[in-house]
Amino acid sequence: MTEHLELILKTIPTDPGVYRYFDSEGKILYVGKAKSLKNRVLSYFTGTGHSVKTRVMVSKIADVKFIVVQSEADALLLENNLIKTLRPRYNIMLKDDKTYPWICIKKERFPRIFLTRKKVNDGSEYFGPYPAVGTAHLLLDILRDLFPLRTCKAELSEKNIDEGRIKPCLEYHIKRCAAPCINAFSEEKYMENIAMARDVLRGQYSTVLTGMKKQMNEKASILDFEGAQKLKEKVERLENYQSRSTVVSTTMRDVDVFSIVSDTEAGYVNYLRVVRGAVVQSYTMELKKCMDETDETLLTLAVVEIRRMYSSGAKEVLLPFPLDVDLGENVRLTVPKISEKRVLVELSEKNARLARMEKVNKERIVDPEAHTRRLMQTMKEELQLDVEPRHIECFDNSNIQGTNPVSSCVVFKDGRPSKKDYRHFIVKTVVGADDFATMAEVITRRYTRLRDENEPLPQLIIVDGGKGQLSSAYQILKDLGLDKKIAIIGIAKRLEELFYPEDPVPLYLDKRSPTLRVIQQLRDEAHRFGITHHRNRRSKGALVSQLDGIKGVGEKTKETLLRHFKTVEKIKTSTAEELSSVVGESKAKIIHSYFSEKKDEAK
Fold first, then answer.
1. Averaged over 374-391, what is the pLDDT?
2. Total domains, the chain
3. How far, CA to CA in Å, does 179 sit from each of 111, 113, 308?
4. For residue 504, is the peptide bond before it cis, meaning its omega torsion is within 30 degrees of 0?
5. Do 290 and 341 fall into the same domain?
C-alpha cells in the first residue's frame, strides 16, 4: 500500500456517503455506498474472506475519493446515479431507471396518487426515487390516511359523473375516498387536497400541518372530540415522518452547485454537478490565498474555472451568496433560501468542509508543525489577538454549597494539553460560594508568582464563566500591570458566547471553528481537572471528619487506620483486638470506647 493511500485511510470521515476507487492511471474502478465511510472502506483493506475478484480490485486501488451525503438512503441513490454515469469496471451495470420506485401524481381530472417504477412523459408529476419500496408504501399510506383521494382508474369526466355512470366503490364506504365520482366532493376541494399532498411529497410539511391543526382546534371548539382526535393522530403521524432526497430531484434539470469554506491560508470550493435532477459528480478545488483574498473573489475564480474544466452547459448556477460574474448568455445565478435547491447548496458546503478537514488531518499527520502554525494563525485572527496564542491558560472554580472550594488551571501549548503545567488551587480567603471572589484570588496568586519569578506568561487566559468572573479576573490583571501583556476572554456555557473585557457584545464563533473546539477542550479539561480534585478533597474530608472528635488520636493514627481499614465504617465495626493489632492496645481502647458510646447514644 502506498503512503498516499495509507494517509487517506487515516483521514476517512465517519459520515454516510459514497466512495470511489481509482487506479494509478486515474480510471474509476468501483463505486460503493456506506452508512459509515470509514468502517466500510477500511474493511476492504483490513478484512478477511474477500473473494478473488475483490482482492484483485483492492490491489489496483491507488486513490480513494468521497462524497458525503445526509443519510444512508441518499447514499444508496447517489451510488445508483454514479454507477450509471461513470460505469466502473467492478460494479454491476444498471441499465435503466426502473431500479427504484417513484410516486406519481397523474395528470388527469381528479388526479390519482400511486406507486410506479416507470416514468411516462405525459405531464404527470413524479416524486422520488425511493431507495426502498417500503418507504414509498409508507408515504402512500400516510397520504391516503391524510387525504381521501381516489385510487380507481375510472374516467371521471363531467359527462360520466353527471349521467351517474360510475358507482362508488368499497373505498368510499370505508371512508377512504371522498367519492368525486358521484359529486360527493367538489373538484376545487379535491385539488386543495392534491396541493397539500404535493407539499408533503416535497417535504414541505409546515403549511399542511398548520391547516390540519387549525381544523383540529375548530372541531374541538364545537365539541367534536372524536374528529379532533383523528386529526391529532394524523398530525402526529405526519410530524414523525421524514423522507427527502438531496441527491435526486424531479423538479430540477441541469444545474451547477457551488460553495466555499475557507481558512487563513486557502479556500475550498466544492462543485456538485446535477444532470436531469440527479447529482452525478462532486469535485473540490483548493485555492491558496496570496493576499487575504475574500471568499467572493476565490469563489468567482473557481466557478469560472470549474465550469470550463467540466464543459458545463447548465443554465442555472446555485451559490451560497451573490457573485458579480458574467457566465454567459441565459445563465442564471441563484442564491436559494429555501426548497431543495438550498438543500443542495448545504450538501455542497458539507463536502467543502470535509475536504478542508481532510487536508487539516493529513497535515497534522505529515507535518504537525505546519498544522500548529495554521491553527495558531486561525485562532489569532478569529479571537482578534495581537499575537498567536501559543500558551493558553484556562481557569474553572469548583464547590458544592460553598464547601471545599478549589480552582483549577489547565495549560495548553501549541493547541495541545501540557499536563505537567496543570495546577490546583485550594481557595484560602473566600468563605462560601463566591465565584467572583474565588476567581480574583486564584488569578492574583497565579500571576503574582509568575511575574515575581520571571516565569513565561501566557498569551491568552480563558475564564470559564460569564461577564462577572471575567471582570474580576481582568481587574486583577490591571492591578498587577499585566492587562497589556496578556489577553483574557470569558466563555459562557449556555450559548458558547465569548466575552471580552469592557465589551458588552459577545463574540459568536462558527460551531465548526477549530478555535472554538480548542476553547471548548480547554474549558472541559479545566472542569474535569477541578471536579476530580474537589471530589478527592471532599471524600477525604468526609472520612477524616468522623475521627476528628476522638481525643488522643492524631493525624498519623488516622492515616494508619484509614490505610488499613479503608473506610470509617469498618473502623467503627472492628473489635478492640482488631484495632490493637494496627494502632496498639491503648489507642485501640480509646477508639473502640468512643464508637461504642456513639452507638449507645444513637439507641
1. 92
2. 4
3. 13, 15, 56
4. no
5. yes
Instruction: Please name every residue paired with 248 in a beta bridge, in sequence order, or none if there are none.
Output: 278
Rounded distance between C-alpha atoms, residue 550 and residue 562, angstroms: 15
What is the pLDDT averaged over residues 46-68? 87
Report how many helices (DSSP H) and strands (DSSP E) the chain contains, helices first. 20, 19
Q: Under the phi-then-psi rule, with left for phi > 0, alpha for psi from -120 to 50, and beta for the rest, what region is 311? A: left
Q: Is the pLDDT of residue 317 over 90?
A: yes
- Mean pLDDT, residues 137-142: 77
d(CA 333, CA 326): 9
| 407 contacts 394 by C-beta, under 8 angstroms | no
**Do 478 and 411 share a structural domain?**
yes
Does residue 95 carry a pLDDT above 60?
Answer: no
Under 8 Å between Cβ of 272 and 257:
yes
Whether the pLDDT of residue 303 is over 70: the answer is yes
Domain of residue 8, residue span: 3-86
**Domain-terminating residue out of 539, 562, 587:** 539
d(CA 196, CA 218): 19
What is the reported pLDDT for 433?
67
**Distance (Å, whole) CA 520 – CA 528:** 12
Q: Is the pLDDT of residue 246 over 90?
A: no
| Burial (0-12, 13-18, 19+ Cβ within 10 Å), 50 | middle
Which grid coordinates are listed for 216? 383540529
Residue 174 in any domain: the answer is no
388 in the same domain as 497: yes
Instruction: Give CA–CA dist 550/596, Å, rounded.
Output: 12
Q: Do residues 430 and 403 lie in contact, with contact meaning Cβ atoms separated by under 8 Å?
A: no
